[in-house]
């Protein structure tokens, strides 16, 4: 029983990274906390049908390809064409490890998990599966998203998938059309091409991932096309026709694209439709998302919302931090020290992409005098040793103060090494000079920072 008349001080709806971050932080701060999860296991979409399964599959594909393309194994006559089931096998083990580890967090911290669909019935009460009633002083909504499914697309057709069902493919299709070239569409395009499928990537916008630095976008487009992905920009679907032997995507431009299967990767929508929000006077936008203030409070100050259900940036990494920040606010502690403005992106295409801070486009528009330093991975010893020489690190820094303003990277280990640049960028004291005044391990991919920093520094006059 909480200090008030409620069952809990805080009740969290959803056990993805957003919910877990909020629940654990609040519990450590001394609040009584309960959570609800409608899926049979905790972990959220992140663990069961989003981040973890897609990244685990990608890792298996990359490793398998590294072996199969290695000249030594070829010489030994090692060839293989693993099935979808074989490629996916490791994923179930990883999910199960994640679930049991995360479940232990709830158990050890005395946070009961109520399995079932939570719905508000009044300001301080929810029901679980329309049965058990639970009261709480505060709430966190961290219910995530589901694929946006337009009514005119038949998702019951066995060859039409969305971003939650695509990993259930029971065989390796010969070809796939991916409609929607956001992060999900682009990552899957890369992954499926790497297992030898013919891939059509249909973009409703005029360039891929336009939130990234232009040079990185150009590199991604070049490498995807070089690998054989067919990319079509500025297209809209007219209809999608499911057949016995394939799927035809009819585009408004008159083009027709037939493939073995189709992945609808065009957008996700917030899981807010059956939450009883009308009973607490909360509204959502056209994408089912909730609006929050800087402390992650909705229009009702005792109801917080974090993670994908509030929209941008819709990342597991950010969801967790937002959950913790919301809990800190409830605890009356400082909640603005989470650097939520500098969230890096890690995009697991081939080549991998990672980025933090300002792009050249943004700096130019803001008339900030900046300079660029670059390092090509092909000249790094570590990249040569790994046989993985595609890539580049680009540092953007202020010409006068030498403060790092943006770090953009593609190639091997991009999403790991970005954090070195992020730390320097966020530091009050460090500047570009850190990278060439500090000794890094050798040979490493991190050496790219020294090379890029010197390259940029030498451009100054
Ligand atoms: C294919 C794919 C790949 C991705 N890859 C990455 C990546 O590489 N890196 C990254 O940072 N992000 C990635 N993301 C995004 C990441 O998965 C999400 O940002 C993250 O899962 C959001 O966490 P969340 O806590 O908001 O919600 P979720 O993880 O979606 O969890 C929400 C939970 O709430 C539960 N729930 C919903 N409604 C109710 C209810 N009424 N009652 C009880 N429970 C409810 C759901 O069952 C679910 O378990 C990817 C997403 C997808 C789809
Ligand atoms: N590596 C990663 O970090 C990673 C990987 C996959 C997904 N994600 C996250 O998952 C989120 C969703 O991925 P995505 O590829 O769908 O991105 P996205 O938001 O770019 O959506 C793709 C397309 O769908 C449209 N759209 C989005 N929501 C819609 C809706 N409800 N109704 C109609 N159209 C809609 C968008 O305008 C866009 O054209 C992203 O925001 C991304 O951050 C991250």
Automatic annotation (TrEMBL):
Sites where the protein binds NAD(+): 180-187, 267
Annotated TM spans: none
| Residue span, Pyridine nucleotide-disulphide oxidoreductase dimerisation domain | 343-452
**EC number(s) stated in the UniProt entry for this protein:** 1.6.1.1
Q: Which cofactor does it need?
A: FAD
Q: Does the keyword Translocase apply?
A: no
Instruction: List, alphabetically, the GO terms of the cellular component aspect.
Output: cytosol
Function, as annotated, reads: Conversion of NADPH, generated by peripheral catabolic pathways, to NADH, which can enter the respiratory chain for energy generation.
The protein in question is named Soluble pyridine nucleotide transhydrogenase
